[in-house]
Amino acid sequence: MTVGRLTRAAAVVAVFGLISRLLGFVREAVLAAAFGASAAADAFVSSLLLVNSVAAVLLYTLVTLVIPVFQQEREDRGSDSAWALLAALAAWVGAILLVIAGIAALWPEGPAALFGFEDERADQTAELVRIMAPAIMLQGFSALFTAMLQVHGKFAGPAAVGVAFNFGIIVGVLVGQETIGIEAAAWGVAAGATLQVLLQLPQFIRLLRRNGVRPRIYHPRLAWVGAMALPVLAASILQQINNFTDKYFAGTLESGRVAALSFANALGQAPRAALLIPIMTPLFPEIARMVAERREEGVGRAFGRAAGLLALVAAPIAALLAVYSHEAAQIAFGRGQCDASCVDEIASPLRFYGIALWAGFISYLCNRTLSAGNQTRQIMTVTTITVVLTIALDLVFLGPFEQAGLALATAIALYVQAILLLAFLHMRFQTLVPTRLIEQQGRIAVSTAVAVAVALGLNLLIDTTSGPSGEVALLAGLKVAVAMAAYLAVARLLSPSEVADGRQALARLASRPGRR
Hints:
The chain is mainly α. Helix content is 86%, strand content 0%. It is globular, with a radius of gyration of 23 Å.
């Protein structure tokens, strides 16, 4: 993939990612305004976690495994064998999804009991799980379509699925909140998952026909893929365990804390969807191809430039989101049933989710690069350590800091995860020199420290922690603009190559395809 094609693919993912994230904000804002940080919101957040966890596990496993496997199989045995392998894999994944969705529909009390609710939230969660059961299967199919389309360089359809999913939930809440309450959001989940599949299905069918793919359940290398999938699947499940334990521990607090933590996490993850995914989605197949062709010098260069660009963006966002967590929560959620107390409950964990952003960006890049190198066992090892550490820190911080302690535990564990992944990455790719990365990230850290100092100084002059949301947005926006100007001024001096890469990427995105 040329730089121009990579940039165009990133632009497509970025556009749909931004629209999806915007609708995600609208979705969370609509939920907060309609139900606030309440028991009903807790039940919906918990049941939605079950649906999204299945989709997240499958999407991570399939994208992480399918792309390198397909590239390697095509390199070794040709395209026909590669597509036949994917067809057999898809058949088995589809069968498993049918079984999981059936269990959720017939016995929703089982999955709902995982959250340990002992009040009205238990029955409500079970009913919502029953309504959302078809979405478990449909979201899984969407994850399968996404992996297979990305193999063939098709990014638009997969990038747009988040738009469809969020749209379905928003419409469901707006239409039905007055008549059926929180169940309207659950029906919206089912509708959004259906839209996801309908959106990708035509492109998926065309892809299969173009490559002459036929249904099959067997391939000589299917068992080998299954063996490779086990550590990746385990790592993905382990990642979801932390999402579950966060909700479980928050559920032991007052009603509404689960929803507040979820709202904070959604806002804290916004830069990841808007910036990280657009860069990494088209870059990962390219890195996988370099590894398959044994071009490790190219992998080293691609990783170094991506790490610099990601840090250049992630570091100031992480710092300023932490500094202005209350303002961000007020602007995003401070309306309707989400009063001042609701905003405070969201802002406290948001501060630590902001701090975690930088480590999250670097960890994702390291994870994907290791996956391209088929280092799945190393990924599972690091993930296991991270999960255990996070749960241990959850237990330490939950008492004194409540839901904010859960976010603090996540932030600390993510930085440990980034360090461990970098160590394994250096063992696999000798062209990745840790000292160069430390020096690169250190220069960006100094620029970020200047931005934080400017932001804190402005806080002494202008108070933006209270007042109408419009006024808070205006004043906080001005302070962020000044802090970012200071950051860029220092970054131009300390990190000129990273800034140049950022300018080049923006220039390519702004130029017309015909001029590339």
